[in-house]
Amino acid sequence: MDSLLTGRSLWAVDKVILAYFAFSTALLLVCWSSIDSAPRILASHAVLLGVLIYEIKRPNVTSWLFRNWYAVIYVGFCYREMALIITALWRGKDRDLWLANLDYRIWHANPTVWLERIYNPALTEYLQLIYTFFVPGVLLVAFLLWRKRNYTEFQYYAFLIALGFLASYIGYLIVPARGPRFVLKALQHTPLQGLWAFRNMQNALDTLESAHYDCFPSGHTELTILAWWSSRLVSKWVFKVYFAYTLSIIFATVYLRYHYTVDLLAGALLATALIVTAPKLYKYLSKGGLAIGGR
To answer: Is the pLDDT of residue 199 over 90?
Structure first.
C-alpha cells in the first residue's frame, strides 16, 4: 500500500478516465453554443482533473482512498453530462423506432407488450427492486474485494467497471434511445403494478433518467455481467449469487419496459469483449502491470 500511496505515476484507470475527459471536452466544445451550462461543465472538468492530478503528483493522507474510489464520482459525472451532449448533437432525434423495429423483426412482437401476459405484482415488485439497486449491486463487488484487502484485484475491477461504464456512454452517443417505456407506451395495454414501493422506485428512476438517452447498449446488462464475472474473485458462493442476480436484472430490463432486447444483446456482447480484452489493456496501461483479469 505504501508504495502505491507514494507513487506518482498514472494508474490504468487514471489513463482511461483522462482519455474520456479529453473526448467529452472536445464534444462539449463542438456543442458549446447548444448547451447553456457548457461553461459550468467545462469548469467542472478543470476542477475534477485538477484534483486528480494533485492527488497523483502530491501524495498525501487522502491519496490512497481517493485514488482507489474516485472513479465512482467521476464516472457518475460523465453520465450526467453525456445526456446534455447527446441532446445537443442529435437535436432531439433518437433511434428508438429503429430499435423497436429490430425487436419486432426478431420476435414478430413487441417484447414489452408480449410480456404483459405474465405480469404479476409480486414479480414486478421484485424486478423493480433488483433494477433500482443496479449501481449498489455493481459496487458491492468492489466493497467485498476492498474488505478482503485484495487491492490488486480491486484496482483491476475498478478499471474494468470504469471502462465498462464509459464504453456504454459512447454507445449512447452513437445510438441515442430512451427506451420502450416512453416510445411504446401507447401500445401497452396494462400498466405495471407492484405491491409496496414499486411506484416510488419507478418514479425516482423516471425522474433521474427521463432526460437521458441511455438505452443502447444496455448498461445494466453489460455492467452486471462484468460484476458477476468479477465476483468469482470474492468467493464461489458470491459468484453463484451474482449469477442469479444477473439473470434477474437482464429479464427486468425488458419486463419493466426499460430496454429493447437488442439493447441486451449489445450489452452482453460489449461485456464479453471487455472480459476478453480488458486484461491485456490493463497490462498495457499499467507500468509493470499484470493481465490479472484473465484468471
So the answer is: no
State the DSSP code for 120: -
Q: How many CA atoms lie within 13 A of 129 on its CB side?
A: 11
Cβ count near 272 (within 10 Å): 14
Which residues, 6 or more positions from 132, have their beta carbon under 8 angstroms from its beta carbon? 201, 204, 205
Q: What is the largest CA-CA distance in the chain?
A: 61
Q: In the predicted model, what is the mean pLDDT of residues 77-97? A: 91
Is residue 245 within 8 A of residue 224, CB to CB? The reply is yes
DSSP 19-43: HHHHHHHHHHHHTGGG-TTHHHHHH
Residue 67, number of CB atoms within 10 A of its CB: 21
Distance of alpha carbon 166 from alpha carbon 68, whole angstroms? 17
**Alpha-carbon dihedral 229, 231, 233, 236, rounded to 10 degrees:** -100
Question: Cα 253 vs. chain centroid, distance in angstroms?
Answer: 14
On the 0-12 / 13-18 / 19+ scale of CB atoms within 10 A, 113 is middle
- Each domain of the chain, given as residue ranges in start order, spans 2-294
Among 101, 103, 116, residue whose Cα is nearest residue 189: 116
Q: Give the percent of the chain with pLDDT over 70.
A: 94
Specify burial of residue 215 (Cβ count, 10 A radius: 0-12, 13-18, 19+): buried
Distance in angstroms (rounded) separating the CA atoms of residues 57 and 35: 33
Q: Supply 103's cell numbers.
A: 425487436
> What burial class does residue 293 get, using C-beta atoms within 10 Å of its C-beta: 0-12 exposed, 13-18 middle, 19+ buried?
buried
Q: How many CA atoms lie within 13 A of 233 on its CB side?
A: 27
Report how far residue 53's alpha carbon sits from residue 77's, in angstroms, rounded to the nearest whole number: 17
Stated pTM of the model: 0.92
